[in-house]
């Protein structure tokens, strides 16, 4: 009996054990739980329905649970179907035995389904704003996902759900200008965050990779962070304009090619407003081609583009600052040089540092008449700040090339580059006329002191003459400059010594001046300017006229003479008188042509040979804007006298008319006046040579000249001649 009981017990235990093993490994199929599972799912949402086939039951003896698994199940909601790979759920053995079946948790594995359908389905289950964000951003693509959901005692979903999956061929049209397509990534989604890995995407046909990104919920916003990488990307001008417009590159970038690794983070509120963007980027700029006509002034060989290649750039961006630092090569006409730069932009200002090393390219500073030597190495460093008022403060500008040095401290400019003030300027360089410039300008209280050994002002004079009516505002503050220079070059061949005095600039104009200097033979040169009652009075006396007259290229072979100039300016109208005394002209093409046309060949030969001497030249004229009106030009000399008037509109038209008379005709005419002629010129005899009247008119480079003989002189000509003869 005991043996029977023992054997029976062993058999029962063996059968039980085998049953447990079978149920734990293979399980059984049944449709007994279909109604219960369907009812539980409808408790989640009444629009949800599930089509279940047989359910496989597998025993979990260690946790006293039964695993229910179904294959090939479909979810239906609002006439939409989501095909599922399987559904898994666990129930306790106790509830199974007591027939108190309820779902505690459920695992759903999908087939490849459309993302938008799945997101809409999940939103029915869980009203989470992150799902709304995802639904708005992702418009296309396919997904394979595992969904884990737990239920409380009342059948409600707990907030510890988890959704993991893979997205393929996604597409986002979140921004109008950006076409985001070919999205592939792995994601991990739960109540508090959405993690994304290996996010591959194409933006406007350019490939990008986000190795890691994370979206976390924090009260009423989302915290988004990640890493964005891109392999070699090349953008042309049209693509740059489409992506960025003029906001970043001002539409002057023709090509950009780069690699980058970018760490980013930002906040996104419920209205999809982006805040607190933070970016840290390491950029390998392979090539950037940009148009910049402004720098042609300093790089004269620049044709259309300046190219930047092989730049290593670090960019840090957040709400408070933009910090950019980098270095690399730049090319002008395929000649390579180096540049380094640092830019720090915060709320109140923009700080910048730039260092250029220029060996192969030409470099010039026009207003200083400075050109870099072709075989030298030039270093240029610039450090400064741009403030909220758009003023630019150059803390230091330093140029060094062999023995040439230019150093400027604390130069403050307005945004239109007009001068406000500076601390000091030191110039020590050889200019392109091979003249040494060595001066200093130092701010002292509210004035400036200009001292130096030598200075070439040839370029300055030329710029003043060429831009006489230029309204560009060069100075934003009134300036008083005290001058003490040992030698000043007026041009390459003429100079003055011991230039002393002062200049006062007010309202962007030369308001007052008192300068004196000496030529090498101790002859004087003086300039005075004074302004009273809004009228500016200028006087210039030079005991040597040649250095000033030589600036006018149409006059050649000018010698001797002294110059006296007087002008007044009021209401933008200038009235001037210029006198030149005791000078000789060797070449004056226009006058030579006149004499030849008038058949006064003897005087024409004299002019082009030995030269003709004049006792006095006087010109009275007025100017307004670009129009010069010549009331009278009168010149008298032993061989010839000229009277002329007319007008000149700069760069447009010249219109002059006048009278030219050899001195023998003048003497004969005046000598024929009873008594007065005998007193002034004595008894004259010989043949009379008639004079000519002439007209010169046309564009400056296409003047037409006509002449006519005259038999009697005008009363005005005779009167002016008598005045000069009496004076002499």
Rg from alpha-carbon coordinates: 47 Å
Q: Report how far the terminal alpha carbons are from each other.
A: 170 Å
The quaternary structure here is single chain
Helical run tally: 14
The number of distinct β-strands equals: 42
List low-confidence stretches: 246-251, 664-689
What general outline do the C-alpha atoms trace? rod-shaped
Overall helicity: 10-25%
| Percentage of β-strand residues | over 45%
The main sheet comes to: 40 strands, mixed
Helix/sheet category: alpha+beta
Mean pLDDT, as a whole number? 78
Structure description:
It is a single chain. The protein has 728 residues and is of the alpha+beta class. Among the domains are: 2-111; 113-142 and 161-216, no CATH class; 588-727, no CATH class. The chain is built from 14 helices and 42 strands. The chain has a 40-stranded mixed sheet that branches. Strands 21-22 form a two-stranded antiparallel ribbon. A hairpin with a 2-residue loop joins strand 5 and strand 6 (80-92). Helix 4 packs antiparallel against helix 5. The chain is rod-shaped and about 170 Å long. The termini are far apart. The model is unreliable at 246-251 and 664-689 (pLDDT under 50).
Q: What are its keywords?
A:
alpha+beta, rod-shaped, 14 helices, 18% helix, 728 residues
List the helices and strands and how they pair.
Blueprint: H1 2-25, E1 28-30, H2 34-44, E2 48-51, E3 55-60, E4 65-71, E5 74-77, E6 80-92, H3 93-97, E7 105-110, E8 113-114, H4 115-125, H5 129-137, E9 140-150, E10 162-172, E11 180-190, E12 193-203, E13 206-218, E14 221-236, H6 237-244, H7 246-249, E15 253-269, E16 274-291, E17 305-317, E18 322-332, E19 335-345, E20 349-358, E21 364-365, E22 370-371, E23 378-387, E24 392-401, E25 404-413, E26 419-421, E27 424-430, E28 436-444, E29 447-456, H8 458-466, E30 479-489, E31 495-506, E32 509-518, E33 524-532, E34 535-542, H9 546-549, E35 556-570, E36 573-587, H10 589-597, H11 601-608, E37 612-624, E38 627-636, E39 640-649, E40 653-662, H12 663-671, H13 676-681, E41 691-698, E42 704-710, H14 715-727
Parallel strand pairs: 29-30
Antiparallel strand pairs: 1-3, 2-5, 3-4, 4-6, 5-6, 6-7, 7-9, 8-9, 9-10, 10-11, 11-12, 12-13, 13-14, 14-15, 15-16, 16-17, 17-18, 18-19, 19-20, 20-23, 21-22, 23-24, 24-25, 25-26, 25-27, 27-28, 28-29, 30-31, 31-32, 32-33, 33-34, 34-35, 35-36, 36-37, 37-38, 38-39, 39-40, 40-41, 41-42
